[in-house]
Amino acid sequence: MAATTDRDLRRLAFGTLFPGFEGVHAPPWLLELADEGLRGVVLFERNVSPADPDGGVAALTARLREVCPDVLVAVDEEGGDVTRLDHRRGSDVPGSAALGVVDDPALTRRVGAHLGARLHAAGVTLNLAPVADVDADPRNPIIGIRSFGSSPERVARHVAAFVEGQQQHRVAATVKHFPGHGATTEDSHYTVPWVSASREVLDARELVPFRAAVAAGTQVVMTAHVRYPALDERPATLSQPIVTDLLRRELGFAGVVMSDGLDMHAISRTVGQAEGAVQALAAGVDALCIGGDSTGPEMVELLVGAITGAVTSGRLSVDRLRDASARVDALAAWCRGGDATPLEDVGATFPDDAPGREAARRAVGAHGVTPLTAPALVLECHDEPGMAAGDVPWAIGAALSARMPGTVVVRLSSDEADPRPSLARDPDRPVVVSVRGLRRRPWQRDVLAAVRALRPDVVVVEHDLPGDPGLLGAHYLLTYSGSRVSAEVAADLLAGVPVDR
Q1: What string of H, E and C letters represents the secondary structure of 129-155?
Q2: Which pLDDT value is given to residue 3?
Q3: What is the CATH number of the domain that holds 393?
Q4: pLDDT single digits (tens) 184-229
Q5: Is the separation of the CB atoms in 147 and 97 below 8 Å?
Q6: Looking at CB atoms within 10 Å, which of 81, 211, 287, 490 has the fewest?
Q7: Distance CA 226, CA 352 (A)
Q8: Is the Cα torsion angle 290, 23, 130, 489 positive or negative in sign?
Q9: Which helix (H) or strand (E) holds 381?
């Protein structure tokens, strides 16, 4: 075998990195590194043009490919709460929980195909979706509504359908977060969560959707920064027993293994991003996602230096680095190969502008609700946005105002949560309370109790997973999603707009 030069090592290291960057145009440093061998980038809402989301991303990806034709462009477009292209207006497809409630894999496949076609048209080749985590603990602060449900079998069939639909457009699916983030009670953006389940429980619950995803041909699996003591003491991203022994050998996955963001505190505030990159590669990870925070050339060079230094010192074998880079190359070849169905042809197969609206209609549940007789007072209960979703519009107020002019929308928060002044100002209006995660947020329950004491006819719209039905009262709508399209369907029901159920 020919000797590996320093330049060869740098190119191999660049072949494993997926940084993020600032702005809607590719900065000069990114173009320079792409020319040197950088094979991937991750887009976030900061890279999406407000004026033309899809067109702006298409122009950005085209510019990157002028320098590196095979560059892989990744984005988080789960639908529902987690959207990058639609982060200013809300997603046009409901999230996984809503699709799980409908439980029609053919519809989920169409939703995946819709997203795949849209991303393909924008030049995106890798979608960091779907979530294959089973919603196993209602206290989970980061998965919840992003999961297809609490049944491993239900999650499995919808993960497989989503993968199949999306990948028909040569947009690689990224099934996450292996081997499962749904049973945690903490968020790996902030700490290192752990799952105490036995290997037998993991086999029967967490691993079921991932086995289905591998069988469906997913191109990428993303690891979780979560500890599973039954498998290893190290977080999955840094664990050879989990990545190589379990995922590669036991589950038979031959595609790209990608890390979750190395900037997340579970890595960056424990071993650090540079050391995390080396340990992840040694464990069997191929692609390193480093783009959550604004990533500049200094961070990329820090990681390249750490990786090449680890090879030179013997901590990381050059064969492992070659293998990782080769898998990323193979993924790029897969995305380039075949004929993706043109966007206009896909759209022609849908009975409406997108399958997301059908999914939202079929998911929304109405209990004791009749159309409003007058413009309402809408009280929206807003928490700080989560790290995965960001500040994406989700509540019903804007959609209801568009359908019933004169609607009054009041935003409440845990710091300003008293609804009584608003009720006193508008004593004769119907009252709607828009909540998100009532089961996990005591302050929202307090708001609702205060409203109900004065207005027992209040209508509650829950945009998250429902908890105890007794919390919701006699009049409520369940959307199972923080998407724009779900809020619009709920607003149609309240405004008396005919809805095809």
Answers
A1: CCECCCCCCCCCCCCHHHCCCCCHHHH
A2: 54
A3: 3.40.50
A4: 989 898 899 999 999 999 999 999 999 999 999 999 999 999 999 9
A5: yes
A6: 211
A7: 40
A8: positive
A9: strand 377-381
Reported pTM: 0.94
Q: How many domains does the chain have?
A: 2
Rounded to an integer, the average pLDDT of 270-284 is 97
Q: What is the identity of the amino acid at 359?
A: A
Secondary structure (3-state) at 260: coil
User: Can you point out the beta strands (E) in 245-355?
Assistant: 256-258, 288-289
Query: Is 260 annotated as catalytic?
Result: yes
pLDDT band at 295 (very low <50, low <70, confident <90, very high): confident
Render pLDDT for 439-473 as a digit per residue (tens, 0 to 9). Answer: 889 999 999 999 999 999 999 999 999 978 788 99
pLDDT at residue 347 greater than cutoff 80: no
User: Which of 177, 189, 463, 475 does the annotation list as catalytic?
Assistant: 189
CA distance 317 to 250: 23
Range of the domain at 307: 27-348
Residues 114 and 225 in one domain: yes
Catalytic residue among 54, 86, 232, 260: 260
CB neighbours (10 Å) of residue 357? 21
Quick count: other Cβ atoms within 10 Å of Cβ 139? 11
Question: Tell me, what DSSP letter sits at residue 244?
Answer: I
- How far apart (Å, rounded) are the C-alpha atoms in residues 444 and 483? 20
pLDDT number for residue 338: 59
Same domain, yes or no, for 105 and 216?
Answer: yes
DSSP state for residue 93 in the 8-state scheme: S
**CATH at residue 64:** 3.20.20.300
**Could you tell me which residues come within 8 angstroms of residue 360 by beta carbon, excluding any fewer than 6 positions away?**
93, 94, 98, 479, 481, 483, 485, 486, 488, 489
* Chain center to CA of 137: 18
> Which position has the token pair 């949560």?
417
Q: Respond yes or no: is residue 187 known to be catalytic.
A: no
Q: Which of 348, 378, 394 is the last residue of a domain?
A: 348
How confident is the model at residue 345, as a pLDDT?
Answer: 43
Same domain, 70 and 189: yes
Residue 447 lies in a domain: yes
**Do 318 and 212 have their domain in common?**
yes
Instruction: Copy the structure tokens of residue 258.
Output: 């990608």
Residue with tokens 């159920």: 501
- To 5 degrees, how large is the angle CA 126–CA 132–CA 137? 140
DSSP label of 236: G
- Residues 271, 299, single domain; the answer is yes
Q: Which residue has the tokens 């477009």?
A: 77
Is the previous residue joined to 177 through a cis bond, with omega within 30 degrees of 0?
A: yes
| Residue 131 counted as domain residue | yes
Name the residue with tokens 């029901």.
Answer: 493
* Dist CA 175 CA 215 (whole Å): 12
Mean pLDDT of all residues belonging to the chain:
93
Q: Is residue 18 part of a domain?
A: no
- The answer to whether residue 12 sits within a structural domain is no
- For residue 413 the two structure tokens come to 């928060």
